[in-house]
What does this fold into?
Amino acid sequence: MSERDEELELQALQRQLDDAFETTRPRTGFEDELWVRMQARRPLWGRIRDAFAGFTQGVREAPAVPAAAVAAVLVVVIGASVISLGGLGFGTAGEKSAMTGDLSPQAGGPAGAFGPVPPPVFSQDRSVQFVPGTQTSQGAAATPYTGSATMTWAGQFNLTITSAPVFRYQEPTSNAADNFASSLGATLQGRPDGFLGSYATSDYTLRVRGTVQVPPVAPAYFILSEPNMPAISASGASPGDIAALFLAEHNLLPQWPYTVSVEGTGYQLKVKFFRQFAAPGYGLAYLVDTKGMPYGLEVDLNGTQAALASGPLPVSLESADYRIITFDQAVRAALASPQPAIGSTPLPSVQLTKAELVYALVAAGDHSFYEPAFLFSGTFQVNGVSYEKRVVVPAVATA
Amino acid sequence: MLADRPPFEDLYRDFLGRVYAYVRSQVSTAADAEDITAQAFMNAYQAYGRFEARHSTPAAWLFRIARNATLDHFRAHGRRERLRRAVEQEPMAEADPATAAEERIQYRALMAHVAQLSERQRDAISLRHSGLSFEEVGTLLACSEDAAKMLYHRSLKALKESVQRAGE
It folds into this structure.
């Protein structure tokens, strides 16, 4: 091999390493969670000082969430393509730069009571990714794979509805956050950057945050237990029961339909309450994130003590029926999702065999929406390891 | 606040992803990477009052803390899994898929080869591709900038040979 050839190979390897390190990032939400944990561990005098005087020591109270979110989405955009069926232009500049509006079978404006609604945007990485497998709404145990693939549809799905509700909420104000905190018995401590308010009770700290625009994250609360948080006494109770009891004791038990999943082993467990929306004529549809993974409310347990709870801030939802695309259209859109790949790794062939209706959050400023979408999934194997591929397609028809 | 010291929030926002990627390249599960990254930033947060920009760049300072936190993790948990990975040349196992972060098969395959490098070579590759300059890599590995460059290029060649051998 000539020196030049070897140099070219080394450069290619460097690019692969660059790509690998640039696209390896923690899961969505980790950045905010860690920052909140760090803030909660600050000495009391520091928190009091900041509540009255603001930061002056070079440490700001909280990250500017939208900016952090933009950073996160930039990571997704590196090597990512985005499926969008809307093309109405409501996305951020970062989103629009990666949109593939030509995929839309219905470009134009929808006719629902809310008027045209911005489309949800779902990410599809150009290489191979893994996301939590036990979170699947369909009970699949395969390791999730969100990278490129050659896909075919080989399942059956009988869609009997032609419309589905879109849900809308108004962006909560600091007053709404105060009222929520007050209902829990928490008193206002301050309004750190990035949060609507910070509150405290005798045994926990509460933070309330508004909608994160990119990637879309609903208004949320975070409860960080103090060491004196009493343990839940319920002998023989399952982790899910303990988490539900904790939520019930604090008036936080979800008022929306959900299923429960417990993750982790031993002393430290995470109990997840996956949120669902009711679609008349269809049933319950999971709320999914930009990668098609269900989510909702989470409670971290240390034994029988809740260490951290985070979930969507209760907001008033309006609903309006919107016509949805046909299943055939959804299949075509799913199979046409962008598939450019990074590197020379051959694309896996995936048969999508399952489909379901799901809901996705669309952050849109003063008002945001939960909109229906189609989630397709199928499994395949690489080196004896089973993976699950997911593709999400917006469902609201726009013409 | 010293004029040459940026707010910690800026460091946190700028470096969290990079530090996580560095740590993730050293350990076999996303859960461990999260724990170590969290510990590193907790330590950095507490020590930030003592950070002096004239003595070190924020990146070098943060990555030193992250590297120490990673070494602490190995001291506490042993290197058995890492050695096993190196010997068996298998992709890094996700013990708990529920806590797995977004990752890529290509990355995992590459890192299986990186795991076979010596610790110093592995650090040179990981730190460099986490965005550090050769000067910063040298500072962390206690060598000159030129020595860091040589170490990196030797590591890269060793990695290429490892990848090629696997493909034969």
